[in-house]
Design brief:
The complex is a heterodimer of chains A (279) and B (298).
Chain A (H helix, E strand, L loop, with lengths): L9 H28 L16 H8 L1 H34 L5 H13 L2 H22 L8 H25 L3 H9 L4 H30 L2 H6 L7 H11 L3 H26 L7
Chain B lengths: L13 H40 L3 E2 L5 E2 L6 H5 L3 H33 L3 H16 L2 H12 L4 H9 L10 H25 L3 H9 L4 H29 L3 H6 L7 H10 L4 H24 L6
Antiparallel strand pairs in B: 1-2
Helix pairs in contact in B: 1-12, 3-7, 3-9, 4-7, 5-7, 7-9, 8-9, 9-12, 11-12
Classes of the chains: A mainly alpha (279), B mainly alpha (298).
Amino acid sequence: MSSTQKELRGASKWALSANAVLVYLFFYAPIALLVLYSFSDDELVGRWGGFTLDWYRAFGENDEVQGALGVSIRVAIISTLISVVLGTMSALALERFRFRGQKIFDALLYLPVIIPDVTMAVMMLLFFTQGISLLDSILGIQISKGIATVALSHIAFSISFVSIVVRARLAGMNEKLEEAAQDLYASKWQTFRHVTFPLIAPGVIGGALLALTLSLDDVVITQFVAGPGSTTLPVYVFGLIRRGVSPLINAVSVVMLAASILLVLLSSLAQRARGGQAT
Amino acid sequence: MTTTSPAPSALATPEFEAANEKQKRRRGFLLALPAYVYLSLFFAIPLFIVVVYSFATRTRSGGTALEEWNLDSYRKLGEPIVTDILLRSITLAVITTVICLLLAYPFSYFLATRKETTRNIMLVFVMIPFWSNFLVRNYAWRVLLGNDGPVSQLTETIGLGETTVLFTPTAIVLGLVYGFLPFMILPMYAAIERMDWSLIEASRDLGATGFQTFKKVTFPLSMPGVIAGSILVFIPSLGAYVTPQILGGGKKTMLGSYIVTQFLTARNWPVGAAVSTVLMFVMLMATLIYFRKGGRTL
């Protein structure tokens, strides 16, 4: 691809640059203002009343917020660990093997990515309601919605995302390296441990960070499957927002944003490691 | 143990090849099995249950009787209240998709024509909003558009008067565009970036004008990105729940809010399940059309 034909000229170049500036302004101006107002010493949100850290102090001292944050972190860690293992295994299976039922499996793996979250929320609600009453009537086991149902639901949508990220990495990888290792008498496990895994590691890390982000961000599905005492931070914040805006929400929002941005930067570092790039 | 690899000295006889092939199939299946079982149990069965519930009957107390299967819930979808919501949702989702297309196409084109280092930095700054908490990003607009908020202050200073966009369909579209624009940019950029640029050069060499080249060559080549991006924006916009709640004030309901209401407040689960089923069906059709058209960039 030579660079000459990709050079833009005159008016179109100017218009395209202007549009790009506009898009970035649109993306970042609201976020920047939200960050600014979270330091504003004014009971009314969206008005500047001098610098303060009071709202962040309130964030640290509010027991409900802290409790919800704890639930969010626990759910995110559990669901990330499990979905990374299952997602990576399924990616290896689909990219490196041919087996019966592969097409159906592939479709099943894609569905959670494209299904609207409201629909998935409804699915999980009905499933757990039905499942809990079934367990109670048949086995006499009494369980209720809680951290487990939230984590189980998060795993259900995270597996697919992890699998897609790892597959992208595997697809761009030279299979000859694995064959060479086997030709040199490495066992299946040794090949995986010393050749395949180091090569797909950036994809696995990228997938893990994506799973972590998705779990930490989800509102709709969690709201449907959480029980009393398993409210996550986004669900708690959503409840607060529906009652109105407040400087405390500004501060909590900024903390959540900072966490997301940190995860993106980590992930882009992971993807760039070893010169690989997988989307 | 049959799982150990066959001795490398073994001859590649047809029997050996077949045995090797069979073993490889089994190993692939076993690797996929845990995720397969998990998704069957916690995704496929829930999906099936929703479809079953859409044919069930609502009891007087707001429960759901899994008997007397009927199509009442689907019939209810033809009532004006529901068709209004459906029409409004489709309209808002279409407007959102078109605005995203108009912003994202020139942006992606610009991005794809940058030098690699510039491009990578620009991409990271698209990934940040893509990954950032959706709820928080919608909340930011709630603060901006609120009474005496920054936008209102700005318009008053310029002399345009107070802004009263919050809790209107305009605010919903704004929130949806803000939320889903990265979903349009990323596949579009991927498609434009991998275009065969020599075809564009050839078109110019053969005397086509810039506009002719765009219409006849560039745009058709970037079509997979346009379709993928449109699906990725249209589907979640149609089922949006968070945005209409926060920026629409929950007054003018959209499909997503309607479904949630049926489950959490109105307690009419069969109708909620029926609307969900229809939404899933639309989503499946859109995806199938996309794959039929040969797109691969979802």
